[in-house]
Amino acid sequence: MTWRDTARAWTRLWRMETRTRDSRERGVGKARAMGVTLLGSRAELVTVEARFELSTRTSEAANDKSEIAITGLPDAVIRESRGRLVAALSASGLRLPAGRLLLHLLPASLKKSGELLDLALALGAAAAAGHLPPDALDGLLFVGEVALDGRLRAVPGGLAAGDAGRRAGLTTMVAPLDTAREAAALPGLRCFACGNLNEVLALLSGAAAAPLLPEKLDEAFDPLASDSPLGLDQIRGQLMGKRAIEVAAAGGHGLLFTGPPGAGKSLLARAMAEILPPPTLDERVEITRVLSAAGRWPGGLARRRAFRAPHHTTSFAGLVGGGSPPAPGEITLAHRGVLFLDELPEFRREVLEGLRLPLEEGHILISRAGRHVTLPADFQLVCAMNPCPCGYLGHPRRSCRCSPGAIQRYRGRISGPLLDRIDLRLELTPPKAEELFGPVDAEDDSPQHHPERLRYVAVRGAREAALARQDHPNARLTTLELDRYVPLDAPMRGILVQAAERRNLSARALQSLRRVARTLADLDDADNVTRTHLAEALTLRLEL
Known about the structure:
By secondary structure, the chain is an alpha/beta fold.
């Protein structure tokens, strides 16, 4: 730093001290600072309004203590921050004089929780008390926890906070290093990393510059260019299972595999995440925002789609979300990815019933006393189950020991309305020995000798065609869109009517068949749905 820079810095500090002395002489100071609070999987902006009144009574001045009040529905963590923030300001050389400090959190009707507001509260108090000019806080977003000695500690939700500020027009964020790293992954957001309050004050005054973190927009994940831990080409046999995975990935359809142990149900389900097209930039931001709010930041923008496989003992709140304050469940952590439920009938019935609305709407509304939180839950459901309690019903080499009543009770644990919302249902049989030990040609690297690459290209092309046509996957086609994009001629109507009579299909099931047929047509790069596509859709829907 040259002597001119030093002189400019001292001049700024002198002007700041002059303005703060004038505000102290007036006796009342006001300031505003922008912070955030986490609400489910997203962050909400909170305006900290600070008002400080100097004491006019001799007894209060003798005690030299400040009376602090925080209003605006703060939780216990925020209310307990009063003493902590006074100690942090004092350790940073910003001692509050005797008087009354009121910190109000806007919007007043929103319940605020967590320690993310510490930094905004501290700076609002400092500016209102005259240690900072109030306009030094304008246009900035402050996020972080403040320790007793003034050091800043990282908090979860950095990317969610930065995204909320960016949508509100705030382009600069000041936070601890790890929290600022999260937000730096967002395009168009300037993130300054500070280690303590003194560094923040130096940044605001211009006396010193905090590190400006660069944007980290790495390349999207490309399954064709990576060593996939599990791909469809590593699964021997199960041609129909692979076809079902391909159709489900192309159209965003739910999928249920039924079969005995060792048939490959779990392997096929795990391969789903590898054949799905990579997330777009907007989807990567959505995925990372959910992980950030849950304290599971992946170290940058997410490159892969999530694959969540909760155990069948998971509670309702663990799967769907809930608690106080409401926290995201597995369906939210699987947003834009795959949710795999193995041993489906072993899940508690009320837990499974909680999936019905998210499967149709793509989100879940958690309502608690005085609080409503909407969590994203646009996931792709893949399920697996045995055909009976012992697992060997229909096995080619082993006999089933279950009674008809036991089989009926086992399958009855899954309700009809939930099954109706799963578009693809397939029964698998164990692969034959010659299929397991067949030759694998790994020498030729051409696409013709790698079926998985051809599948991936077809899936990606079908997804892009659907998005270009109706801006969402085929699994979410509405009735009007089905009439427009899947028109039925007389033979196709006859096929559906006959299937409805023989299988006792519901109206939802018939619409589901049309959606799957549209996906099959996209995989064939066909403009119109034909009877062949509709017939194949029927073969991919087993009625349990």
